[in-house]
Amino acid sequence: MLSLGLLILNGDKKVIFKSSWLPWVLIAPQAFIILVFFFWPATQALVQSFQQSDVFGTKVEWNGLENFESLWRDDTYLASFKTTAVFSILVAGLGISLSLFLAFFADRITRGAWVYRTLLILPYAVAPVVAGVLWLFLFSPSVGLASFMLEKLGVQWNALLNSNHAMALIVIASVWKQISYNFLFFLAGFQSIPKSLIEAAAIDGASVWKRFWTIQLPLLTPTTFFLLVVNTVYAFFETFGIVDATTRGGPGKDTAILVYKVYFDGFKAMDLGGSAAQSVILMFIVISLTVIQFKYVERKVNY
Amino acid sequence: MIERNRWLTFLTHLVLCIGVIVIVFPIYLAVVGATHSSQEMAQSPIPVWFGSEGLTNFKTILMGEGPGVTTQLPVSRMMWVSLITALCIAFGKITISLLSAFAIVYFQFPFRKTVFWGIFVTLMLPVEVRIVPTYKVIADFGMVNSFAGLTIPLIASATATFLFRQFFLTVPDELTEAAKMDGAKPMRFFWDVLLPLSKTSMAALFVIQFIYGWNQYLWPLLMSTEERMYPIVMGIRSMTAGADSQIQWNLVMSTAILALLPPALVVVLMQKWFIKGLVDTEK
Question: Which of A27, A38, A283 lies closest to B122 in CB terms?
Fold first, then answer.
């Protein structure tokens, strides 16, 4: 996502071309796709969320806020909200702290840093589904290496039966996948802090530990906040593949995050009105997150 | 390095080594898993060193035939679908974003700001939040199970448009003046001056968008109902659909390697542009 400075049309060109038709032709492909595949479906979701259709889709009638009210009364939906909240707090919290930790050390390295960097950014290239499959394998109850080790430690691991295990599995896979991204932004943040600042503190006798807490971490606040928003969006919307590859929302519905539920209710359970109402709620969540990002995440990193 | 502290340097390398090992281990284990037979992979603990069945496994999945394969679509076909999809999405996004950024920066036209904000708002409407109605639109167009359906709806891009707009704003006006003086038409200026200047931004965006396209999952899940249009990330998901003990992990891991190899190569070999693309699109 982008910072607000980008959006203000201030830097207008003084020298421009004149044509009454050419700009429209140039904009047409993008405009067409946006109107047909973004705005039209979004409007449809909004309309359908106030409608009720029967199983065969032959009769459609308006029912006001009924879809939203029944969501509110639906325990599985509220549970899904809670699951998503727990999941995204864990993913954002663990992902950000682990990558901050790694970036802090990577920043100290002068020689051979690219070797570590290259290996640490690999997970970014791995598709969420593939990441899910890799971790599913490690934690497979019958042959998984990690579950084998856990069993030696006395833990009967089975993500298919135990919902805490299932949650741990999707959190680990999601954090693993997102660490590369966070790491690169923290590393850039660390490297943008003037060396003279650190040196001055060192001369005054501040230890590495103290310098981190009093200089580096405060200066990284904008980066951290930016990553907090990005990681929340990631946990909410981009982890569908991970959930679908590992737990499929189970056991029961214990790892069915909101996006998974929209998909399931819309395509498997064929509840169009309910799914549309869920879509509308999700849209509000994305819009609020974007607004938060644009309002409060102005100066992120001082490159 | 501010101070010389041997212990601290040792600790730094130790932490990073442990970090790297933990991060890379799942990928390493996938490579190992891809080199064993299904019998070896069905016992616990599974081997942690390379076996000798790698060639057989890759041949089996690429051809879609061999021991233990039941009417499985050849993975080579899935990789082809993924490749075409990823390339169309990357080039499509870059093309239409270049054109719209050119229009927005170099022309004055009514509703210019409205168009700009319209593109911006798409950031807030990811596919995930409007799954069912978007599927209906595509179905009405008859685009299910086609490359057009897999790619076109995904090539609108606010981030790429803003990136190019930002870049065009830094191009000196003198260049435009000179081109106009020489009697160059707008498209000629676009083609001969702007495009060559935008090469770095295009490379950076290509890396990001190729990975984005290759790794698409939810969209093909809706679009591809026939096996012949399965991209590889969808194929791998269908291979793990059975009960835990019946999954043929050696074949699943061979497929996983093939699924992550192209984007991983792009990231590693084009690392400079990858980092630039990542940081620039977020700025």
Answer: A38
Q: Does A76 touch chain B (CB under 8 A)?
A: no
Q: Report the C-alpha gap between A32 and A54 in whole angstroms.
A: 32
In angstroms, rounded to a whole number, what is the distance separating the alpha carbons of residues A110 and A17?
49
* B155 occurs within a structural domain: yes
Q: Which CATH number among 1.10.3210.10, 1.10.3720.10, 3.20.20.70, 3.90.226.10 corresponds to the domain A75-296?
A: 1.10.3720.10
Residue B63 belongs to some domain of the structure = no
User: What's the whole-number mean pLDDT along residues A267-296?
Assistant: 81
Strands A51-53 and A60-62: antiparallel
Q: Is residue B279 part of a domain?
A: no
The whole-number pLDDT of residue A55 equals: 60
Residue B70 in contact with partner chain A when CB distance is under 8 A: no
Sign of the Cα pseudo-torsion (A270, A273, A278, A279, in order)? positive
Say if residue A5's pLDDT is above 50: no
User: Which secondary structure element, helix H or strand E, spans residue B63, and what is its range?
Assistant: helix B54-63
Radius of gyration of chain B (CA): 24
Rounded distance, CA A39 to CA A205, Å? Answer: 59
User: Considering Cα of B68, then B72, then B76, then B79, what sign does the dihedral take?
Assistant: negative
| Predicted local distance difference test score (pLDDT) of residue B66 | 54
- What is the average per-residue pLDDT within B186-214? 92
CATH code of the domain in which B167 resides = 1.10.3720.10
pLDDT digit string (tens) for A105-152?
999 887 888 889 999 999 999 999 999 999 999 998 888 888 888 988
Specify the range with the lowest mean pLDDT, choosing from A243-252, B15-24, B117-126: B117-126
ipTM of the prediction: 0.89
The amino acid sitting at A1 is M
Q: What is the pLDDT of residue A159?
A: 82
Assess B109–A contact: CB distance below 8 Å, yes or no. Answer: yes
**A130 and B256 in contact by Cβ < 8 A?**
yes
For residue B26, tell me if it sits in a domain.
no
Tokens standing for A76? 């599985």
At residue B130 the predicted structure's pLDDT band, cuts being 50, 70 and 90, is: confident
Instruction: Render pLDDT for B242-263 as a digit per residue (tens, 0 to 9).
Output: 777 778 888 889 999 999 999 9
pLDDT higher at A272 or B13: B13
Answer yes or no: do A120 and B41 touch at CB < 8 A: no
Band of residue A299 on the pLDDT scale cut at 50, 70, 90: very low
Give the integer Cα–Cα distance in Å for B240 and B38.
14
**What chain B residue is nearest to A241 in terms of C-alpha separation?**
B217
Q: Which long-range contacts (CB under 8 A, 24 or more apart) does A270-274 make?
A: A270/A55, A272/A48, A272/A53, A272/A57, A272/B132, A273/A48, A273/A49, A273/A51, A273/A52, A273/A53, A273/A63, A273/A67, A274/A67, A274/A70, A274/A71
Domain residues for the domain of B151 are 79-223
What is the SS3 assignment for B251?
Answer: helix
Residues of B in contact with A203 (CB under 8 A): none
B186 touches chain A (CB under 8 A): yes
* CA atoms of A242 and A105, how far apart (whole Å): 29
Domain count, chain B: 1
- Check CB contact under 8 Å for A120 and B19: yes
